[in-house]
Every structure is written in structure tokens, then in C-alpha cells.
Amino acid sequence: MAVVSSKQLNMQEASVYPEHEIGYRVVGFVGAFLLVLSLCLTAITIRDNVFSEHFHRFMQSVYKISAQYGLYVEDIIVEGNQRTSYDELIEALNLSDNESILGIDIAQLQSKIEQLTWVKHCVVKRSFFPNNILVNIEERHVSAIWQYEGRYYPVDDEGNVIEVEDYEPDAPILLLAGEDAPNHLAKLLEVLKSEEELYKRVKAAVFISGRRWNLIFDHPGNGIVVKLPEKNFAEAYKKIALLNKRRGIFKRKLTSFDVRYPNRIIVDIDKSVEDLMFKR
């Protein structure tokens, strides 16, 4: 019987199993796994798409039959709209005659309505008996009119410019002027409304050089100008409000209060409001 040394056996095994064969096997296994995985995902996708298509066709048949048996939209009831016309809403909803009330996508209808100019938010609901669609609208509240490049734009309380051809305010409203003024309106209103009595007297606000505000009180073209600082303008506004309560400064024949400096107030009694409104 032939005797083979352990050294010779190891050499033969090394020739059968090369040094890097384990690495090759790992790479091959990973590659095969990824291939099988991609094939499985492809098969699942095809199956789901086919199933989804068949399911969609089935549901469309259900909706059609339900409409034939009376479950269709008879009327659309709208609440909360003042500036948004009923015709605009009907056009946005784009519902066909005898549309199944079951097949309506409520979220899609809400999205369409909220794209209308005056609509801030809306809620759409089904009323199965007597087959009505209920639309409750919250319209944008106009807080100011922005004078820009010869035109006037309504601006809501969040500073959004409402793009409309014509707008007639229902009551006296704050006049805005200055580049980029609407984007800073929300913060300004928050400060102004902190002194409600004084806020009612603010007729115009001019955003100066994209940095700070000039306020015009009592009359937009012939009122008292208050020049607020770029920083900490809320404190300066409160200072003016306090002085008016204690000393009635707005009752005096003054045209301008400059409160841009922390330790003093500069008063002007000569210059016209037109010169002061846009003065830096």
C-alpha cells in the first residue's frame, strides 16, 4: 500500500483549491443573489401592475353600475366663498354628468380648489343622501394693498401677493410700498397689532431699502411719519405707543418721529410727508 505524506497531500489540495477560490465563490454568490433578486422584483412589479390594471377596471365598472342605480352626484353645495365664484369652482372640479359619488377622489378635488386664486384652504365631503358634494372654503383675508410698479395688489395676512386684475377693498386698508414689502408684512402686522389702538391709525407702511419701515399715521398722504429702526423695531414701536398714551404726541403739530436711535427721538415739524415717506 502506498503511503502519501501529509506534505504531499497538502500540495495536491492546494492545486485543487487555489488560494483565491473563496473570494471567487463569494463574488459569484453575491452576483447570483442579485440576479435572482432583480428577477423576483421584476416579476412582482409586473404582477402588481397587471393586478392594479385589472383592479382599476373592476372598480370603474363598480362605479358605473353604482351611478346607474342612483349613487351619482346630483348637486354641489359651496359654503364660505365670497370672492370665488360658483362657476370657477365647477370648472375646477370638472365633474361629468352622472358622476359616481363613490368614485370621486376627495383629496384631488380639494387640491384643485385650493389652486384657485382666492382659496386658502378647503374641505370637500360626500353627502350620500341626497347625493351632494359639500365644499367648505376658507378664502384669503386681505390685510394690505401693495403699491408696486404702478399697480395695486392685495396681500393676505401671511404676506402672499394675490394676483388679480382688479380689487376693491371692502373697508379702509393698510397701504404697502417698497420693494419686497409683502414678504415682511407678517412680522410687521404682529408688531403693529400688539398696540391695537395705535394700529388702527396706521394708514401706510413703506419698506425702505429692503431693511426697515416708515409708518404713516392718520392719513396716507398727509399724516405723521414714524421712522422705525432696522433692528428691534418692535421696541421702538412700543416706545412711540407709550409716549402717545402719556403725552399725546400725535395730537401735536409734528410731521415726523425718528426712533431709529436707542437713546433719542428726532422730531421734525417742517418737512412735508411726501418728502419723508421714502426718506432713508
The first-level CATH class of the largest domain is given as: Alpha Beta
Average pLDDT value?
80
The major pleated sheet works out as: 8 strands, mixed
- The CATH superfamily of the largest domain is Cell division protein FtsQ/DivIB
Gross morphology:
elongated
Which structural class best describes the helix and strand composition? alpha/beta
Radius of gyration over all CA atoms, rounded? 36 Å
E-strand count:
11
Which percent range describes the beta-strand content? 15-25%
Distance between the termini: 112 Å
The largest sheet has its strands arranged as 5-4-6-7-8-9-10-11
* Overall number of domains: 2
Following the backbone from N to C, one meets helices and strands in this order, namely HHEHHEEEEEHHEEEHEEH
Low-confidence stretches: 1-17
Instruction: Give the proportion of residues in helices.
Output: 25-40%
Question: What fold name goes in the CATH topology slot of the largest domain?
Answer: Rossmann fold
The number of helices is 8
CATH architecture of the largest domain: 3-Layer(aba) Sandwich
Question: How do the strands and helices of this protein lay out in sequence?
Answer:
Blueprint: H1 6-16, H2 21-68, E1 75-79, H3 86-93, H4 106-113, E2 119-127, E3 132-139, E4 142-148, E5 151-156, E6 174-177, H5 185-192, H6 196-199, E7 202-208, E8 212-217, E9 224-227, H7 233-247, E10 256-261, E11 264-268, H8 273-277
Could you explain how this protein is built, in words?
- With 280 residues, this protein is an alpha/beta fold.
- It has two domains: 75-139, membrane protein fhac (Ubiquitin-like (UB roll), Roll), CATH 3.10.20.310; 142-277, Rossmann fold.
- It is 38% helix and 24% strand.
- It has eight helices and eleven strands.
- The protein has helices at 6-16, 21-68, 86-93, 106-113, 185-192, 196-199, 233-247, 273-277; strands at 75-79, 119-127, 132-139, 142-148, 151-156, 174-177, 202-208, 212-217, 224-227, 256-261, 264-268.
- The strands form two sheets. The chain has an eight-stranded mixed beta sheet with strand order 5-4-6-7-8-9-10-11.
- The radius of gyration is 36 Å and the shape is elongated.
- The relative contact order is 0.06.
